[in-house]
């Protein structure tokens, strides 16, 4: 703006100045730009509210996932807790779906171990060996190692490159070393035999065969096992690892309490979601609703309730009310833990049918998980609403920039016009002053 030449000492043009333009522009900006800014803020607040709802939906989804028939992990009805008495074994299970409650008795009479040989003592590990051959047989595999021109370190490095061997050069005293040669795996099938030709490192001496390969021998529920590893993987997915000789009992139990706790957590999270959604879609004259399009969230909550209220089981004989799960007059989910715990103990399969279901008749958890998962999918209800809000915010920002540019352009033109008017008025005032002087002079 040509602010510098406005109101140049001219009494007639004093009002045509920068201060006037600023006031005019501020007033017009308030009427044109402020409504756009306010609408952007409203949409951003609505987007923040939607994000909060999406977060809580995901939290509910995490809980419901425990009852999903198609979960990549074990659903909660397949969860088994285990404990042991005795210290002869430890246990693990990567998949507990095939485990059943009960006791497993394990007696370990022998642990599997590797074949271990040591060389005679070595004083100089960098010394060069004479020509010779060391042959090592393990199962159907045979390795030949030439010693000619190699140091002990080089020989050990070459041996250790073989996948079936574990070879190290160990310092066994302040000034002596031994080559320690082991099979990489335990058991009789990995037993070693060593022969030496034209070289004697002591491997064939009986005293240097310090540990002999042997299988693990155990009885598991009366069945005898004679295997090369100390770990046995049962067909049901239970992994039993022998630790020491002795007898142990593994007790497998369903975690019934976890089922009740998880259902209570789902009810609590659902009630939190009800409160959160209501807080954003209900409003009045004094406090308008944060979410402008309440139909989207009402549809979401209505679908969730429909899934919860539906009937399940192959004959539609199951519903949640049978097992102490209900809704109060305000729409909150209520859980009678006593009734539910009794159902877990006495109607376990029926409750699983209700909550998990089958491929041909999905349960509450499976259906609800699928629906909640879809809400923030590519074309999901919440995703579409979020996209609409973001698009509206982008449009409003563009509108703001366009309106702001037009105002700047308008008032730049006005500044130029005001400057021209100032010059013109000043010229007219100067001319009038000259004329006034001539008139006053002639009157004298």
Give the gist of this structure.
The chain has helices at residues 18-64, 152-160, 256-281, 294-309, 337-346, 348-355, 364-375, 381-443; strands spanning 80-85, 89-93, 102-110, 116-118, 133-138, 141-146, 165-173, 176-183, 192-197, 209-211, 216-220, 223-227, 231-233, 238-242, 246-254, 325-327, 333-335. With 444 residues, it is of the alpha+beta class. The strands form 5 sheets. A 5-stranded antiparallel beta sheet has the order 1-15-3-11-12, with no helix packed on it. It has a 4-stranded antiparallel beta sheet with strand order 7-8-4-10, with helices on one face.
What can you see in these coordinates?
It contains eight helices and 17 strands. The protein has helices at 18-64, 152-160, 256-281, 294-309, 337-346, 348-355, 364-375, 381-443; strands at residues 80-85, 89-93, 102-110, 116-118, 133-138, 141-146, 165-173, 176-183, 192-197, 209-211, 216-220, 223-227, 231-233, 238-242, 246-254, 325-327, 333-335. The chain starts with 17 loop residues before the first helix and ends with a helix. It is flat, with a radius of gyration of 43 Å. Strands 1-15-3-11-12 form a five-stranded antiparallel beta sheet, with no helix packed on it. Strands 7-8-4-10 form a four-stranded antiparallel beta sheet, covered by helices on one side. A three-stranded antiparallel beta sheet has the order 2-14-13, with no helix packed on it. The chain is 43% helix and 21% strand. With 444 residues, the protein is of the alpha+beta class. The longest helix is centred in the C-terminal third of the chain and has 63 residues, at 381-443. Helix 1 (18-64) packs antiparallel against helix 3 (256-281), helix 1 (18-64) packs antiparallel against helix 8 (381-443) and helix 4 runs antiparallel to helix 7 (364-375).
């Amino acid at each position: 703006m040509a602010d510098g030449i406005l109101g140049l000492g001219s009494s007639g043009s004093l009002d045509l100045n920068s201060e006037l333009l600023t006031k005019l522009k501020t007033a017009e900006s308030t009427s044109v730009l402020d409504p756009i800014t306010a609408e952007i803020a409203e949409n951003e607040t609505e987007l923040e509210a939607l994000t909060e709802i999406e977060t809580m939906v995901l939290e509910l989804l995490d809980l419901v996932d425990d009852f999903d028939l198609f979960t990549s992990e074990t659903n909660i009805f397949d969860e088994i807790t285990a404990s042991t008495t005795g210290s002869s074994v430890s246990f693990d299970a990567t998949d507990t779906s095939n485990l059943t409650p009960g006791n497993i008795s394990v007696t370990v009479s022998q642990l599997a171990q590797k074949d271990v040989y040591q060389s005679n003592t070595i004083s100089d590990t960098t010394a060069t060996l004479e020509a010779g051959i060391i042959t090592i047989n393990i199962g159907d595999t045979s390795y030949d190692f030439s010693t000619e021109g190699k140091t002990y370190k080089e020989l050990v490095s070459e041996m250790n490159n073989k996948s079936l061997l574990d070879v190290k050069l160990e310092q066994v005293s302040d000034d002596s070393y031994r080559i320690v040669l082991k099979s990489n795996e335990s058991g009789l099938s990995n037993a070693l035999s060593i022969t030496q030709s034209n070289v004697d490192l002591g491997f064939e001496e009986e005293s240097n065969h310090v540990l002999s390969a042997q299988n693990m021998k155990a009885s598991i529920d009366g069945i005898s096992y004679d295997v090369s590893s100390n770990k046995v993987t049962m067909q049901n997915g239970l992994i039993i690892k022998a630790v020491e000789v002795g007898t142990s009992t593994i007790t497998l139990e369903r975690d019934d309490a976890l089922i009740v706790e998880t259902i209570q957590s789902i009810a609590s999270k659902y009630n939190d979601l009800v409160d959160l959604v209501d807080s954003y879609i209900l409003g009045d004259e004094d406090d308008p609703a944060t979410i402008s399009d309440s139909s989207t969230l009402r549809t979401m909550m209505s679908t969730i309730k429909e899934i919860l209220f539906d009937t399940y089981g192959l004959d539609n004989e199951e519903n949640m009310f049978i097992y102490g799960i209900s809704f109060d007059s305000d729409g909150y989910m209520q859980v009678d833990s006593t009734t539910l715990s009794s159902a877990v103990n006495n109607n376990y399969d029926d409750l699983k049918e209700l909550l998990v279901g089958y491929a041909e008749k999905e349960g509450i958890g499976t259906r609800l998980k699928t629906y909640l998962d879809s809400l923030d999918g590519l074309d999901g209800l919440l995703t579409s609403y979020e996209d609409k809000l973001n698009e509206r915010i982008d449009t409003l920002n563009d509108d703001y920039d366009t309106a702001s540019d037009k105002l700047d352009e308008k008032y730049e033109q006005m500044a130029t016009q005001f400057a021209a008017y100032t010059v013109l008025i000043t010229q007219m005032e100067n001319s009038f002053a000259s004329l006034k002087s001539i008139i006053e002079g002639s009157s004298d």
